[in-house]
Amino acid sequence: MDNQPPKLIIGLTGNIATGKSAVMRLAASRGALTIDADKVVHDILAHDPSMQAAIAVAFGSHVRKSNGQIDRAALGQIVFNDSEALRDLEMMLHPAVRIEITRRLRESDARIVMIEAIKLLEGGLSQMCHQIWVTRCAQTLQIDRMRICRGMALEEAVARIKAQPPQEEKVAQADVVIDTGGLMRDTERQFDLAWQRLPSPDSVEPRAVPDLPPPVVVRAMAETPATAAAPPPPHIERPKNLDVRRARPSDISSILLLIQKATSGAVSMKRGDLLLALGERSYFIGQIGAQISAIMGWVVDDMVGRIDQIYLYPLDEGVVTGTAVLEEIEQSAQNHIAELIIAALPDTSSPAIHELFQQRGYQPRSSLPQNLPRNWQAALGEAEANAEEQLFKVLRPERIRTRS
């Protein structure tokens, strides 16, 4: 891939709610670059003017919003009820998706890459991959995940499953099959076994990838407060018995109690919901002695980290443990090759929580320049839709460029 060291590329696929996201997180935690093809599509629909114009011509101007972006709901009503229209749309999008994925491959120093795509085998992306991994689980678990984690009604979940080909069709083409029907540690055990058996990136033949269009000439931005190196955060003395670690299923009762106390009962989760959530994202716990006082849930996707669950109680102690948790998340984000971290703070957040993030160098969304990498724009757009305050911390300021 140009003058870069060779990369080992894994393609990950599986039907809806079969645990692909959990496998992607495990790959990212081992230092792999992870690329979600569905998010690449959303990015193109939101930010590629030429594709937006082409889709409006093909499917009608009503599928384009006043700001130029594609109305995915309106487009979905057309293509998901018309197999020919869906095929036409895929023929338009797939080449652009492959080119964008190629761009990200070439921009990354990661030696192992995992590309997730529900239509990996149908859309040609599999030709870029050295191995195909497939996730599977029982249909009843698929339904539970869609109802609990995505808020779908039972009828909608069943319809979505029936609209897809049987899982066995993908399994038959897999080099590795990971069954996610058990506990998270069972999934991780299967993942680790497959990961240990991967060939060295130096030993694999390069895969054919599409040529990139001519590069746009760019110049580095003048350093601004948003991209300049932030001053080091103030030192907070840590108690000797302060510990930060990843949450485990055995912590569920303590986590549920802390969430209830931190929100005065406004947020109430069931044990089963939290158990599923532990498989969907990473949770870090901060504690002094045996007392848990900070929990933060976060996920990294498409090289952007997002902290969207923040619970501290009691507040004074939680600020100390929460600062340590945030430091651990930032280090983990660096290990995941993240470029940006977004913290979504609920409107009800205490001023002390805002100050905690600000002292770690997080700034308001308005401090970012307009010309941002596509994956940043997509992540910030998703966060804005939740009507929460966003704070951000740039981990790779060199990714911000302005066109000349």
Condensed summary:
With 404 residues, this protein is of the alpha/beta class. It has 14 helices and 14 strands.
The CATH superfamily of the largest domain is P-loop containing nucleotide triphosphate hydrolases
With strands numbered from the N-terminus, the spatial order across the biggest sheet is: 7-8-9-10-11-13-12
**Outline, from the CA principal axes?**
globular
What structural category do the secondary elements indicate?
alpha/beta
Second-tier CATH architecture of the largest domain? 3-Layer(aba) Sandwich
Task: Tell me the distance between the termini.
Answer: 27 Å
Give the total of domains.
Answer: 2
Task: Say how many strands there are.
Answer: 14
Mean pLDDT: 85
What CATH calls the topology of the largest domain is Rossmann fold
Q: What is the H-and-E element order? A: EHEHHHHEEHHHEHEEHHEEEHEHEHEE
Supply the number of helical segments: 14
Sheet of most strands: 7 strands, mixed
What is the name of the CATH class of the largest domain?
A: Alpha Beta
Radius of gyration: 22 Å
Strand content: 15-25%
Residue windows where pLDDT falls under 50 for at least 5 positions:
214-230
* Fraction of helical residues: 40-55%
